[in-house]
Design goal:
Blueprint (H helix, E strand, L loop, with lengths): L2 E4 L11 H6 L7 H13 L23 H20 L1 H15 L12 H10 L4 E5 L6 H7 L7 E4 H4 L6 H11 L6 E5 L14 E4 L14 H5 L19
Parallel strand pairs: 1-2, 1-4, 2-3, 4-5
Helix pairs in contact: 2-3, 3-4
Length: 245
């Protein structure tokens, strides 16, 4: 592998928990009300970068194609979660505030412990790096805040390209920016379907688990063993589709 693409959420950074996200609003809630609120937010998949909804709404699968769609889908999920507790007007206001919160660098926990060492070593070896993310806003400030921006050569964001993983267009665009053909590029991510879609172009794929930062100290370290070697038969993980789009 001569270049590497990394997913963002759940791969290099992890979003704060739904409880922490809610607490940022400083609401005066009883313990029972807070617990109910967190449960509702979690079940509806309201927190971008957090767990998916138990029952995905219409348009969920295409939520990252544009900034407008991303905001609309997530604020609607948040409003649905908060409406029974706060009523329409206050639920609308809180949904807008929570959406703004998740876009702030402070909402993203420190990078995974091995993110900086791995990216630093790739830079030392002269291996170009791209961040390829399904997202509805500019994540570059998160990388600046986390001190990782100096290791990233290109950002390919779904809302800017209007194409989201596993659409081959987003991976192809990243490969072109990296200056290497797909068969020389490794994709690293936590989503077997979305990130693993890079295998449709001939990229290798390394799967990491989306865990809280403290629970995954070394999931990225194997990347360093893969760089410099050709695609291996086992690089495509079980469950990854053979074709994307």
């Amino acid at each position: 592998m001569n270049a590497v693409m990394f997913d963002f959420s759940g791969t290099l950074f992890h979003i704060e928990s739904a409880a922490e996200w809610l607490d940022e609003l400083g609401l005066d809630l009883s313990p029972a009300e807070r617990e109910d609120c967190v449960r509702r937010l979690t079940e509806t998949g309201a927190l971008p970068g957090g767990p998916p909804p138990l029952h995905p709404p219409e348009g969920w699968s295409q939520r990252d194609v544009t900034a407008e769609r991303h905001r609309s889908v997530y604020t609607a999920q948040t409003r649905a979660a908060l409406l029974p507790l706060f009523g329409p007007e206050r639920a609308d206001r809180l949904a807008a505030e929570l959406y703004r919160r998740h876009m702030s660098p402070g909402a993203w926990r420190s990078p995974y412990p091995d993110a900086e060492p791995v990216l630093s070593e790739l830079r030392r070896r002269g291996v170009p790096v791209a961040v390829v993310s399904n997202i509805g806003w500019d994540l570059r400030p998160v990388f600046v805040h986390g001190g990782l921006d100096r290791y990233v050569d290109a950002y390919v964001l779904s809302y800017e390209l209007e194409a989201q993983k596993p659409d081959p267009r987003i991976f192809r665009a990243a490969c072109e920016l990296l200056g290497h053909p797909p068969e020389q590029v490794l994709m690293v991510g936590d989503d077997l379907a979305a990130d693993g879609g890079a295998t449709a172009l001939g990229c290798a794929f390394h799967h990491v688990r989306s865990l809280p930062v403290a629970e995954r100290p070394d999931g990225l370290l194997p990347v360093l063993d893969l760089v410099g070697s050709g695609p291996l038969p086992g690089d495509r993980m079980e469950g990854v589709p053979a074709t994307g789009g």
